[in-house]
Amino acid sequence: MKRVTPHMARVTFDAGDLAGSIGGEPDQQVKLYFPKPGQAVPRLPEPGGDFMRWYEAFNAIPEDERPWMRSFTIRAVDRERKTVDIDFVLHGDAGPAARWAESARPSDVLGMFGPSAMFARPVPLSAAIAASDWLLLAGDQAALPAIGTLIESLPEGYPAVACVEVGDAAEEQSFTTRGRVSVRWVHRGQVPPGHGEGLLDAVRRAEFPSGRVFAWLAGEAGTVRALRRHLVGDRGVDKRSIDFTGYWRLKLTQDDAPTQEDLTDAGELVERARELTAEAHAQDNG
Ligand SMILES: Cc1cc2nc3c(=O)[nH]c(=O)nc-3n(C[C@H](O)[C@H](O)[C@H](O)COP(=O)(O)OP(=O)(O)OC[C@H]3O[C@@H](n4cnc5c(N)ncnc54)[C@H](O)[C@@H]3O)c2cc1C
Fold first, then answer.
1. Is 225 helix (H, G, I), strand (E, B) or coil?
2. How many CB atoms lie within 10 A of CB 98?
3. CATH architecture, range 2-118
4. For the whole model, what pTM was predicted?
């Protein structure tokens, strides 16, 4: 484990043969399973079979033994060394994932599901880029691992504007890219309150390049909604050109039930996936 910045820990996992099956695409999400107190290794059902059966078996584990499940992004894969890097925001000791990363030691074990087609983005980045003139990336520190992979995968000379909210200047990172990327860092200061306001303000003030934009948004769910409203309502961006994910929720854990707004977002994403599938069928048939 190493600290990329004071509040970002990079954990390199020995992933065995799994590493060979992970492609090099950007923004690949996985579910990680963290052991409950008293367990050295998270208790998981046997792998194999279809995911729904596996998930039923997972949910049948008594709650005090069932691992905490959290979403993360593959930051890097090394197929020769069979390792996977994941970057964890150290946001305090309120959550099991951040707590685990704060004190991770060699030989600690987590479970991992994915990357999986089940989590695939409705529009793969390569297709989104091909259909657009430039890319807008906006997110907070939890989105930084994904934003890093997206920036690093841009084609030669492709324009991108990234607005990223972090605690302070010490949390900024640098990326290697073939794209033409301008990164605007927003420093949050005190947390909370103030989560997301700086990011929203930075995107509102940003001068957009001309041409068709594809926007990728992730971070605190309320902020992501506000960013979307701004892009659609004030900037006239087509909803279908926005990929958005609420990564975490203020004052709620990933175990808490979805709010009405979360359900509305999920409904829109399902509807969107249906439209894209229908469009793809229409193209194939015609
Ligand atoms: C697709 C996807 C990919 C993601 N990739 C990454 C990644 O690569 N790296 C990463 O660090 N996170 C990532 N996240 C976000 C991560 O899953 C959440 O932050 C998660 O809630 C962390 O779990 P926890 O156990 O630490 O906190 P939880 O138990 O879920 O929450 C405990 C408390 O901490 C607060 N909290 C949770 N996350 C944050 C945060 N980031 N900043 C401030 N307060 C927070 C909650 O509001 C709550 O009050 C991703 C999320 C998704 C959906």
1. helix
2. 17
3. Beta Barrel (2.40)
4. 0.94
247 lines ligand 1 (CB under 6 A): yes
Spatial CA neighbour of 13 closest among 95, 111, 132, 127: 111
Our answer on whether the CB atom of 91 is closer than 6 Å to any ligand 1 atom is yes
pLDDT-based confidence at residue 142 (cuts at 50, 70, 90): very high
Q: What pLDDT does 18 receive?
A: 87
Fold category of 125-272 in CATH:
Rossmann fold (3.40.50)
Q: What number does the ligand 1 atom closest to the CA of 71 have?
A: 17
Does the pLDDT of residue 88 top 80, yes or no? yes
118 alpha carbon – ligand 1 mean position (Å): 20
Residue with tokens 């091909």: 130
Q: Is 39 in the pocket of ligand 1 (CB under 6 A)?
A: no
The amino acid occupying position 69 is M
In short, whether 70's Cβ falls inside 6 Å of ligand 1 is yes
244 exposure class (CB count in 10 Å sphere: 0-12, 13-18, 19+): buried
Q: Is the pLDDT of residue 192 over 80?
A: no
Q: Does the beta carbon of 95 lie inside 6 Å of ligand 1? A: yes
| Domain ranges, ordered by start, for the chain | 2-118, 125-272
**176/190: higher pLDDT:** 176
pLDDT in tens, 171-186: 999 999 999 999 999 9
Ligand 1 pocket test: pick from 247, 256, 269 the residue with the most ligand atoms within 8 Å of its Cβ: 247
